[in-house]
Amino acid sequence: MTTPVKGLRAAKVAETQERILDAARTLFVRDGYHATALTAVADRARVGHRTVYVRFGTKAALLRSVVDVAVGGDAEQRTVGEREWFQAALTEPALVDRVEVLVGGIADLMERAGDLFEVVLQAQASEPELAEAFQAGRADTRELLRRFVRTARADGLLAEVADPVWQEETVALACQAETYLLLRRTTGWGSGDYRGWLRRTLTEVLAPA
């Protein structure tokens, strides 16, 4: 088989997968996890029912894939910690710039994935796989944000505080998905409001040196 033929086949596979993920996202957000059937996803994506089962196996696995794409912003297999925006948040020369980059990255992520996080919260009581994945996401987020604070401290950008662990945990909590969802439910804030709150919160917690 020639390379061009292989390339066309790979492109077709990728295009089919994108259609399935787009269809699944729409139905999960619109109808909720339990009301969304894999057959309905296949019909909306205009693929055979078997195609969805072969590619993803279960509805929980499909939702995890949809969430992964939303969190990353693309289908690349890179963690948040490996993304350029997070690396910039660790290396900008001034604290104000690090906070700005971090706020932008977190807020963009929540805009893309917030509705899907709500779906996961609905589903996790009956889907241990999703509950485990969401808990792993919480732990990863906590560690990334603690790393952000520790790096800024090591680079001499933070004033000394009596309780640095409190500082790390407060920043991590502010950036968790469930904090975003709670604010959205209770305040009715839009994207700009959330960005402003997160920027102010992080700036006040991270007293500059």
List keywords for this structure.
single chain; 209 residues; mainly alpha; Arc Repressor Mutant, subunit A; 2 domains; elongated; DNA-binding; HTH-type_TetR-like_transc_reg; TetR/AcrR family transcriptional regulator; HTH_TetR; DNA-binding transcription factor activity
Morphology call:
elongated
Q: Can you tell me the residue ranges where pLDDT is under 50 for at least 5 consecutive residues?
A: none
Q: Give the number of domains.
A: 2
Rg (C-alpha, Å): 20 Å
Portion of residues in beta strands equals under 5%
> What is the quaternary state of this protein?
single chain
> How confident overall, as mean pLDDT?
93
What is the element string, with H for helices and E for strands?
HHHHHHHHHH
**Beta-strand segment tally:** 0
Helix/strand class: mainly alpha
Discrete helix count: 10
Fraction of helical residues: over 70%
The CA-CA distance between the termini, in Å, is: 62 Å
Largest sheet: none
Please tell me about this protein's structure.
This protein is mostly helical. The chain folds into two domains: 1-57, Arc Repressor Mutant, subunit A (Orthogonal Bundle), CATH 1.10.10; 78-205, no CATH class. 77% of the residues lie in helices and 0% in strands. The protein has helices spanning 3-31, 38-45, 49-56, 59-72, 84-91, 95-123, 128-154, 164-174, 177-187, 191-205. Helix 2 crosses helix 3 and helix 5 runs antiparallel to helix 6 (95-123).
